[in-house]
Amino acid sequence: MSDVPSHDPWAKLRAATVARIGLGRSGAGLPTGAHLTFQYAHARARDAVQSALDVDALARDLAPQEVIRVASAAPDRATYLRRPDLGRRLASGEAETLNARAPCDVVFVIADGLSSAAVQAHAAAVVHACVPKMSGLSIGPVVIAAQARVAIGDEIGNLLGARLVVVLVGERPGLSVADSLGAYLTYDPRVGRRDSDRNCLSNIHAKGGMSPQEAARKIAWLTHAALTLGLTGTGLKEDSGQIETENAPRIGGA
Amino acid sequence: MSRFQTILAGELHAFGTLAEVMAKATPARSGDALAGVIAESDVERVAAQMVLADLPLKLFLTDLLIPYEIDDVTRLIVDSHDTAAFAPVSHMTVGQFRDWLLSDAADGPALSALAPGVMPEMVAAVSKLMRNRDLIAVARKIRVVTAFRTTLGLEGRIGSRLQPNHPADDLKGIVASTLDGLSFGVGDAVIGINPATDNIPTAMALLQMLDELRQSYDIPTQSCVLTHVTNAIEIINRGAPVDLVFQSVAGTQAANEGFGVTLPMLAEAHEAALSLRRGTVGQNVMYFETGQGAALSANAHHGIDQQTLETRAYAVCRTYDPLIVNTVVGFIGPEYLYDGKEIIRAGLEDHFCGKLLGLPMGCDVCYTNHSEADQNDMDVLMTLLAEARAHFLIGVPGADDIMLNYQSLSFHDIAYLRNSLGLRAAPEFEAWLMAMGIVSETGHLIESGAGALRLLEAAQ
User: Fold this and answer.
1) Contact B430/B424 with Cβ under 8 angstroms?
2) Least CB-CB distance to A20: which of B33, B34, B398?
3) B29 touches chain A (CB under 8 A)
4) Can you tell me the distance from the alpha carbon of B94 to that of B103, in angstroms, rounded to the nearest whole number?
5) What digits encode the pLDDT tens for the residues B381-422?
6) What is the pTM of this model?
7) Which residues hold adenosylcob(III)alamin (chain B) (predicted)?
């Protein structure tokens, strides 16, 4: 089978999975076409991790929402990837840009996480879809945090006096989807919150994932429920069967 | 005055504890920096290695890195130490131990006899003084043979796990990936699925499907659904066809508690799987996975470097006579192993340490997309591990695991090790591959692919 034969015996099986099966072989190696297809997928995933977020473009996409820009304590991408702890805290001095604001119900924090591509592509659409579904709630400024992981929302939400923080974050890219966005909701945000204190939606993307509209519906539902019950995390999950699948733990999220 | 010190070019390098010497002697990696235990400079690292080289192996019997009273892995290590097996090296320093391991006196039988006499910490210590080539040279001398329906670890052979994961546990999708792997001659160590939904009914459905597939093609191999050990016990009680029991384990009691696993649980599962008597050529029924950084990520590392903790996990593994053990070397992410260089080094260390402790040691040669690594690094590591005579390696379709979102080796890569390095599959499995017309008498894939087509036609 030095190349894929004209009558492809793998066609039926390939329909059953997106796994890279029936690739053919050149000796024991990948045929050139399959090799380059893989290289392309990996390059896209790498670019999604390494590329800097275009904060100006994202701020324009978020208009008319007010935007505040902050940086995490990780000075560059290489440090950020080595030191998850630094990506969870604001850089020194950043706290002052968030002080002296009126308290609010909800704050959105957009963190590049492990895929700036995901944030660039989907974060503004999710915010815009959420706002009309949160009428009656006061929504603070949208904070764009660079080199940041989920838990940075705890410090930001606390400084802004928010009752609940929604962190939209780029998820670890796979080869098939490099721009998947996650959303993490934390009630009463403050430094030291654990992952079990949060509710999570994942797989917000355009390749068979959740649409921004669908994500917004779930985020709004969770937000209202959290503010009514006064909690997020495992306690909220038990009361909301319809979002069960979105709460499945993810390995290696941000 | 510190017991652990040396003077280099007039500069004093002193270390407070054995744990500090071990950590600072470790070749650099991101996880030790994250834990705050890494050497502050290259010179300090070499100073620590020089101090370590002069320490007697016997010191590890009394200077326990994690106290006996607070950690059941320490208790397991101390209580199971075989003094008679230790005798041939008991007078050596760590540096002398390295020299002996590299010498012709340390041949295969001598190293096999030594295994119960060495503690994980001794093995970790000596590995820190060894270059990559040393790790390969010594590991290659050690033979560990285990068996269930295939015999693994024999001279001139390398096993493979066929990993046909699917993000929705779709049975047809998993069968499709399994047939693809079999057509490349992969799967003699195990056909093993990581379930996307970790519950008992899903695991039972997957096990049933794999068992029917194995029986319908009459394939001499074993299957496994990598679910939690407590699930496996329940599944055995409900009568599902369990060949191997799987569990991830780590090197401290607290980290194992983070996995929700205790030593008595593992003993119970081992007994339950043995009671089924499903093996034909052997009764090694356990499959363990480990990986550097597991303890730190569970905040259960006691200030000890991640490579030493990884080696302690092997003490847990060897208690239950596993068929296969693998280190999932690059899976955990760049905060533990940053780039290809660190992943390659860790893979060789883990393989060496596991084998010296008597384990059937394999590796998931892998990386994530946020690591500074790529398939070229995996090519290097798999070739080195094959030359070091790893027990088995893992293959997934096209190197892309669509459920766990990371890259491992491809089925093609396993075929490369067979075709280019002349390494063969387990004899029982290879006989089946020959009968199916998938490989030739020499173990090479047959170019026409006729055997693979026959496999597919039978499935349609």
Assistant:
1) yes
2) B398
3) no
4) 14
5) 999 999 999 999 999 999 999 988 899 999 999 999 999 999
6) 0.91
7) 195, 247, 297, 403
